[in-house]
Design a protein that fits this description.
Elements: H1 12-22, E1 29-30, H2 47-59, H3 72-83, E2 92-97, H4 99-114, E3 119-124, H5 129-136, E4 140-145, H6 156-163, E5 171-175, H7 188-201, E6 204-209, H8 218-229, E7 235-240, E8 253-258, H9 262-279, H10 286-296, H11 298-330, H12 337-340, E9 345-347, H13 352-362, E10 364-365, E11 371-373, H14 381-391
Parallel strand pairs: 1-10, 3-4, 3-5, 5-6, 6-7
Antiparallel strand pairs: 2-8, 7-8, 9-11
The structure holds (2S)-2-hydroxybutanedioic acid.
């Protein structure tokens, strides 16, 4: 049997991680995988996470199964964090999933059951695992224009023109905030136009929100998702806790499905639990319990929010430093977009051969489409990167 196997396509981001590890150069700079790093290159366990873990260790007296949907308290806490009061709880079905990727996977599986012929529309570009999972599941997909490689902002006219081709019942995948891989985001006015168009087309939104708190703040980053959730009868939201709680390896995420009413919610909830059972049975609990403990304890929550704000402001500083340095070196405002982008990533908007040059000649690792993880920089490496960008002729 196993002789029938052939190698699967490598994930671009994970392949880059491996290449970076193998590079013996000490001055190498990792701007690859989307993991937050502090100025020393460490990905810390957040203070509130440590404290919540201590409390859980002291108090927990069973490791028996939770429910198939995970602990309902996690679902409730995450619904409030992401959706606030935008939709009534009676309309929101939710299941805990192994990370945000698990939530995306379950969302797609749900679509496959409910609407097998739907086409999933993805921004061009998007997180490479989106099309990869859709292809793996044998579902239909299409792309809408998103990134303007001249301005490095959103090609909004192109986006609207492409979304005009969406058919009734199609799914449009939107990034809730901090677009991955570009860092270019829609304004609230633009998202309202997208909502109006999608309502006219009777399309259904699937929102991927993996970086809440990394862009303009916890509430500001949820605005687009909340607007969308309150504007449609049905909507799917995949949220990740990996980044904003720094619990990457705990695999903590949630899929929320906004239903038309309480009856529809009940059957959706049952389907989501069924899907968890088929795919992995009970979802991981530890990370979810940590998140719930933090969100429901005012002191821990305040400390988590404060640390998250520091992380966010640190990335904004790095963006500004890099834009300033490039302004100085090039005597132009060509790279000012770096300070306007939000979240962990910015797409530099250069060619794969220049990305390769940056890696080979300067030890700078970014994804081949020129996505940089801004959190991989520090005050020392910002000038190094700026110089290399200029030397490589970006
Ligand atoms: C990324 O885009 O780098 C992160 O979401 C990590 C991953 O799993 O790809």
């Amino acid at each position: 049997m196993l002789e029938n196997l052939t190698p699967q396509p490598a994930d671009k981001i994970l392949a880059l991680m491996a290449a970076y590890r193998e590079d013996p150069r000490s001055e190498k700079v990792d701007l690859g995988v989307g993991v937050y790093k502090d100025a020393t290159g460490n990905t810390p366990v957040m203070r509130a996470v440590k404290e919540a873990e201590r409390l859980i260790l002291a108090d927990q007296n069973t490791k028996a199964y939770t429910g198939l949907a995970g602990d309902p308290a996690f679902g409730d806490a995450m619904r409030k964090l992401v959706l606030a009061e935008s939709v009534p709880a009676e309309r929101v079905a939710a299941v805990a999933t192994p990370g945000g990727t698990g939530a995306i996977r379950q969302a797609l599986e749900l679509i496959k059951i409910a609407s097998p012929k739907a086409t999933i529309w993805l921004s061009n570009p998007t997180w490479p695992n989106h099309p990869s999972i859709i292809k793996y599941l044998g579902m239909k997909m299409a792309e809408y224009r998103y990134f303007d490689s001249e301005t490095r902002g959103v090609d909004f006219a192109g986006m609207l023109a492409d979304l005009d081709k969406v058919a009734e019942g199609d799914i449009v995948l939107l990034h809730g905030c901090c677009h991955n891989p570009t860092g270019a985001n829609l304004t609230l006015d633009q998202i309202n136009q997208v909502i109006t168009l999608m309502q006219k087309k009777r399309a259904i939104p699937l929102v991927d929100i993996a970086y809440q708190g990394f862009g303009d703040g916890l509430d500001a980053d949820a605005q687009v998702t909340r607007h969308i959730a309150s504007s449609f009868d049905n909507c799917l939201i995949a949220a990740s806790c990996s980044k904003n709680f720094g619990v990457y390896r705990e695999r903590t995420g949630i899929l929320m499905a906004v239903a038309k009413d309480a009856d529809q919610k009940a059957v959706t909830q049952q389907n989501l639990a069924y899907l968890n059972r088929q795919n992995f049975s009970f979802p991981p609990d530890h990370g979810a319990r940590v998140v719930t403990t933090i969100l429901n304890d005012p002191e821990l929550r305040a400390d988590w929010e404060a640390e998250l704000e520091d992380v966010r402001n640190g990335m904004l500083d790095l963006r500004q430093q890099l834009a300033d340095e490039l302004r100085r070196l090039t005597n132009s405002d060509r790279f000012d977009f770096l300070a306007d982008h939000r979240g962990m990533f910015s797409r530099l908007g250069t060619t794969p051969d220049k990305v390769e040059k940056l890696r080979a000649e300067h030890g700078i690792y970014m994804v081949g489409d020129s996505r940089m993880n801004i959190a991989g920089l520090n005050a020392e490496t910002v000038p190094v990167l700026a110089k290399a960008i200029v030397a490589a002729g970006v």
